[in-house]
Design a protein that fits this description.
Elements (H helix, E strand, L loop, with lengths): L1 H27 L13 E12 L3 H25 L11 H7 E11 L3 E11 H8 L12 E9 L2 E3 L6 H8 L9 E2 L7 H4 L10 H10 L4 E11 L6 E9 L4 E10 L4 H21 L33 E8 L3 H13 L3 E8 L5 E8 L3 H10 L3 E5 L2 E5 L34
Parallel strand pairs: 4-6, 4-7, 10-14
Antiparallel strand pairs: 1-3, 2-3, 4-5, 7-8, 8-9, 10-12, 11-12, 13-14
Helix pairs in contact: 5-8
Amino acid sequence: MLRRRFAVLLTVLLAIAGVSGVLYAQLETGDRGILPIDSSGTLEVTGIHVDVGGADAQSARYAGWRIAQRLGFRALYAKMHNVPISQAPNLPDPTLDDIVSSISVEREQIGPNRYIADLGILFDRARAAQFLGVEGGEIQRSEPMLLIPVIVTGGTATSVELRNAWQRAWAQFRTSQSPIDYVRVSGMGVDPMLINAAQTQRPGRGWWRNIIDLYGAADILVAEVQLQRLYPGGPARARFIGRHGPDNEVVGGFTLTAANGDIAAMMAEGVRRMDELFSNALAAGRLVRDTSLNQPPPPVLPEVPVEKPVAPVSQFNSYQVQVTGSNVNFYNFAMAHLRTLPGVQSATPQQINPGGTSYILVSYRGDIAQLAAALSGRGWIVDFSGTVVRMRASSDKPPALPPPPVQPQPATAPPSQPTTNKVGTE
């Protein structure tokens, strides 16, 4: 019994160690990771074939490179302007030497006095722009597309988990002239955990949103190749399929063969053809972003009623009082009456005319009829209209001021009675 429990425990520990080892190997193995080539500052033309002779091998090679520069510029001009190569201009060799950034050798054969090669010409974008007739050499591009290269060989589908010829071909592809704005992954860090062949089959939009947001993309392109070899190192056949979007919609496909077993060359041609396939689909309006990749709108929160602040209501009304009198006493007594009138907050002179009509601004708690009645009670002759009160006296003298209110006297205690001590006698 004890041995059986020990065996079960040992089996569980080995299983845990095995899973941990697989995860560690997937993240830490050195057999993965290919950095994409940065081609943002160059324009490239590939597949320039030259076959020239010369006095010696070096002269033949130099002449071949000269011819490749001329043919490369004309081919680039024709491609960017969509015209036949016969309509492309010729530039002198000193000018070409100045705008050519480098020459890449795809294949070459050097003889004693002959040079045969397939070359690629890289032009400096800024310097060549003025001769190409395109400002900055820029072209209209799509929104950022996350590219996932998938290779199926030997019944196993992989992406960037391990280095492979298909990933290397995409990493070496110069995307500066493509209308597709590719977002290529290197296969380092967490790339194998996020970008893999299994992810292309998952329809979950939430996970896709997280991935494209992490890599700064807006849509997904899947470049799949199904590779079949007749025998190791022998002829090979590959079926290329381009897919788009989170639902793996097929854009198109084609088939290539490598009779001599040159897998790298076949993959490079497959990348070029696949880019052309995606570019044509973009021009036809087929690479439309799935609206389900958009972030869902935030939940609608219930509207909280906002109570508008109530403006303070003034309890006092402003009226203009016109005082008519023959001397300054009328004005002074009128001001004294107004300032001592119950309900009056303030009485401010506006215009003083002792021998005529003076104007006073009065702030009063109440309406104009109440103000007029209060002044009439003081002995003034009053009439009013609108917000104007006119007051005058019935004689040559203004009404007298009412006496001040009688202040109540404080209550006093009654005088205390003196106490007498009676002394009894016996």
